[in-house]
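new request in #modeling-help
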Amino acid sequence: MYQLERQDIQGIISFGYGNLDAAAYALLHIQNASLTKHWLSNLVDQVQTGQERPSERGLNIAFTYEGLAALGLPESALTTFPTEFQEGMTEPNRSRVLGDHQGSENDPQTWLWGGPNSQTVHILLLLFAKNDAQLDEFYSALESQFATNGVELIRKLETKILKDDDEGLREHFGFRDAISQPSIEGLHRAKSPNHLIKAGEFILGYPNEYNLLTESPRVQPDFDPQNLLPPGEFGSHDLGRNGSYLVFRQLSQNVEAFWRFLDTTTRNTDGSSQPQARLKLAAKMVGRWPSGTSLVQSPEQDDPTVPDQNDFVYHHSDAQGLRCPVGAHIRRTNPRDSLGPAPGTERSIAVNKTHRLLRRGRTYGEPISASFDPDAILNSPNPEGERGIHFICINANISRQFEFVQHTWINNPKFNGLYQETDPLMGDRQPGELGKTDRFTEPATPIRHCVKELPQFVTVRGGAYFFLPGIKAIRYLASLS
Amino acid sequence: MTHQETFTVIAPIKLDQVDDLRAVLETIQRNVRHNDLIPFTRFPQVHFARFVILEAVIDPLRNTTIPASLAFSSCIDAPLKDYLQSLVKIAGSGLDQVFSHCESYPPPPQRTVSSRLAYLRKHSVKSQAFYVNTIGRTVQQIRQEADLRDKIEHFLDQYQQDHNQTHNSADATAVRRAIQEFVRREPALSWALRPAPSPSLLWRIREKLHFLGGLVVILLLGLVFLPFAPIFVAILRWKEETDPHPQQNPNFRLSQFHRLHLAQDEDFFSQNQFSVVGFIKPGWFRYGTLRVILWLINFAARHIFNNGDLGTVPLLKLSGVDTIHFANWIVIDRGRRELFISNYDGSLEDYMNDFINKVAWGLNLAFSHGVDYPKTRWLVKGGARDEQIYKAVLRKYQIRTQVWYPAYPDLSAINISNNAQIRAGLFQPLDTTATQAWLSRL
């Protein structure tokens, strides 16, 4: 059994900072690398580690490939990063894999940040505080240092946490979110072994679910004369140890269109709304009721009293998806025991464990209705502003984890035997040559119910791949000459 | 029933003409279905076809150059001679434009239907192993059954709309009867009133004899081999331990093998193509073992894994993969290299994960005789289980497929199989449970 070096791991891997309600993200561009490095060498002491949960505030920091290059990381080290990180989220072939098709709503050309038409992102600062006032204070103190330390603010991304009456986290469509999270072995306690995942899936330097070490970026010893980094493979110094990759996507949710579509689809022949049917169809698309209870646990109506909303699997209770449709959002994003080899067994769960994501994002924007009531949303005159999720996930292998989930599960029209549908909630509906993918199938007896012409409800507005270094690695980056 | 065949031509490319050939192939690929040169949709028996340029390489063992060559490979419904006939007739000038860049293609005055045909036949190579997802399922059947499902789906949408208030209380038998009525009334679906043709008695006897004969040969040769097995295992283990392998190489990383030139041809459809070529490890031991294993793979593909699944062995608790449409293993360059081509569902990442997670043992058997393959133990252990090294090896030896024609790119192998089950059960007498199970396929 290995011991996790918590003091070298950034806190955002260990904690979701659930006690810190306020958060903001700053996207920075390096203008003067030597000033920036000096600043980093001071800032590193403020970076929250995984050792203990902060009670007041937390700062974490991550870098894009361009950011590492701008800091002067030598070419011989840069080329040891995985291909997907080197190429970035917006490489055109990758965009096709991720569902960010050229000419579609998700086209990186139209992104607010991270795309080819905006300033290159180098650094991401993640700031957390107890409340908005403390966050403002924290942020202002940092912001005042930007100009004098050679960095320019590209964009500040605000967040707004949404809570229901029971203090549960919601997203803008109105559903309880962040229920299923992997627990990292050696770091978190898990209620069930099904959710306990090897540390190497999320932190470099530890065995992953294959009992192997994920490739870690490394530096030739000559480029680390002060020996700031721990030893790595083949006599190199390990830049990746205790680090990870952070995937960021700004996902804008069209809440009004979501409920409008559900309302129209479920109307009576006389044109009147059917709130019950509307809610049920929404739940079928999500796979959970608004309270978070899974449709496997309670197929007919919401039941907020279910003690553990994450305590279920699919195969033995719902192989055909009569309760939770095969194509429902949560069944696509985490199929648990429903896929091969041998669905319903440990072997299926073992493969599932190689595709888990540690989610650390937060909602942003004002809710259309604070009570998340669909009628209130539908009757709200011209809801202004944008709302959605700053989706952040942490994984050690972007291609096997985030990209796989995005392509093979979320946007795959052929997922688990389906034909022409993508994730009903966040799927892309303009898949180029793939043909139409705007259906949603609800398995039922005697025959399925099929919803057609689903609009796209979620649009990507920005995004990038970041390296989330360990504390020693940040010190090393700050020391680069 | 019509079975499936494969036909591959490998022709050396004239010196300095590789780029010109590449340009011709690009023209074909730009409109692969209806281009003027080789309009693939006009060959109704083609499931998949591709042109692949095998670039010139130096054989490190002999220090000689293996010149560049062009591979043209098709997976088709039998009979092969009909395909070749229509190919040289319909696409004669297209073949000229492609193969005139290759050695010994007939000069213009001598280009006739028969000289082209003779050229293709002369340069054809045998696939040492050929995998067909489901033997006997033709392109026409796949297309028809997809159309049948589409029409039934459309009918069901309408049916549900008409019975909006009551559809959940309707019973399964009534719905199925309505579907049957609909199909009977639809003239375009008259073919669906009969089940798909089953293999003829002659075919079944021939296959059974081939299977039994093969088993006898395997058994006899196995017995002959048995006394030598300890020596074989000793050599194998010694080779496995001493052969160089990529885990020793600090530069052998995923990031070293640029994926951009490969990725540009991938992920346009839910189906993808894959071509890979590499040297076989030197020496008669590896070569001999590989040939025996390929023969066994071919035998197993023909008689065991011939119905939508590759590698499931319930007795050994092995689960296979159900996403491969067709695959060929071809030993080329007088036994120095192996070319592997496949047509599969999903992305390459998905394909690699699927194989690593489910049939790593099979990958090891089939590919561990190639140079740079990750280190194996006992022929089946280790190897592809080293996830990232395996993925790097695969990307390193993968080559571009200049032209790729999939006949039904919008269908996954699982879709195709489901469509076949829908058709098979449509007019079969079914009890209530089976009726509901049949309806859940829609």
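bot summary: The radius of gyration of chain B is 24 Å.
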